[in-house]
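Lecture notes, unit on binding sites. The following record was shown on slide 14. It pairs a sequence with 1-deoxynojirimycin.
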Amino acid sequence: MKRMWYRNAVIYEIFTRSFYDSNGDGIGDVKGIIEKLDYLDNLGIDVIWLTPIYASPNEDAGYDVSDYYQINEEYGVISDVELLIREAHKRNIKIIMELVANHTSIEHMWFKSARKSKKSIYRDFYIWRDNSGDEYPNNWMSSRTGKPVWTYVEETDSYYFHLYTSHQPDLNWRNEELRKEIYKIIKFWLNKGVDGFRLDVINKISKKEGLPDLDDSVPYHYAEMYFENQPLVHEYIHNMRKEILNEYPDCIFMGQTSGIDLDQAYEYTLGEKEQLDLFLQFELTDMDKGPEGRLKQFDLEKFKDIIFKWQDAFDGKLWNTIFLGSHDLPRMVSHYGDDENYREKSAKMLATVQLFLRGTQIIYMGDEIGMTNVNYKSIDDYNDNRTKNFYYKRINERNENEEKVFMDIHDISRDNARYPIQWNDSIHGGFSSGKPWIKENDNYEYINVESQLNDENSIFEYYKKLIKIRKSERTLIEGKTTRLNYGEGIIAYRRIYNDISIDVIANFTNVSKRIDIVGNGERIIGNYDGENYQELKPYEVVVFKNYIC
Ligand code: NOJ
């Protein structure tokens, strides 16, 4: 089978701006990643996924590209990326770049030309509607801004379409020339040696023909049924795939496909038309999102149902990515664990539950040392455009109580995951000798890499062990997953492959749980010492291996 290496892989996601600053300008850079490759190698990861590092005005953390052939000068130059790829490959680490191809920045040369004149050769690279005098060309609303997906341009008396902010005009995939340009970009980076791409919001690149209004009983709608998983999306991805695989048979495509169900997952990865190798779906990490992305009460039973629904479907053919954190999500220990009283225990428990599930694993940078959410007190300390929109909407438009708004922001802001990595307890957490582009989290004095390296009880060393075990146990890669029931507050499952079974039993709560673990077998890892398996302490996890006779 081709390209199957990704099944065993542990991917490590890097948000470059906050990883490590090599030149003291307060901004993480590519050379900074090179300096830390030995750290990553020591952790045991196989793949680095870089969130966008292309030239960009950074309205949306690089998800607004102004030139796909250059990297953001704050991050370095192309030869730095070439060196990163070579150095990573020397350590057997692969590199996945981001392909942001649903939209560009308004600063992209294509858009600058397109907005000026209807005659521009790039005009049709974007989606336009003439100004007909009515308010907006349709009633779709942007989930990012809560406003219409249209922005007016005076030069040509027309509107352009954008699912995200007005700085991110959507590309028109119906245009063949545009598609060819995207193939060129992919090949440019493959020629530099990258091993694959994470395709940003790839299931949204095709919009329903004619962009019709959606049910006009409500003024504006988030019209995902008209722009997610449309029939043509499969053609587009498939054709792109064919074009690339012809020349680069090992390249992998990991598609971001929010809102897909099992049938769609089959179609994207195993359908007749070859499309994606891996997909990222968010049913689990979005399950406690309430209105406007605020948090609802966490429901462990629902969490388990979602995990095991997908695990059941992975029959060895259907394959998925597994993650609990990312640059868009809160810190996993703050969100699912207890970052005050049981930070170390809950971080280890979560890592175990995650890393022993079936699927390609993704660790978000900093989770391997248990970094936590950040609680900035002023909106000026935040950078994330989603957080700022959320704040201004509720404060300026609705006059809501600021303290309450901040409570939500502390839970959900994407800056929770985007502040600098804490390398040591020196100023700025050792991230930079200059002032970081975003305020650091004060807790770097006690949460940092240096204090965890070679401390056998640290979260970092625990992650290392988990990754090592995962690699040495075929059961954890190929084994079928079965849900086990140990009662309320506990998540447990068994992996089985040939004559080996591995049980993971985890207390997801901050109180001890009485249980009766039967047929223990050999304990291969856990986050507490001790042999008492009639009780699981707060956030305790224990893993047993058994030989099936
Ligand atoms: C998904 C990315 O993960 C997110 O960070 C970004 O804002 C949107 N796509 C828009 O590109």
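Take-home: Residues 260 and 281 are 6 Å apart (CA to CA).
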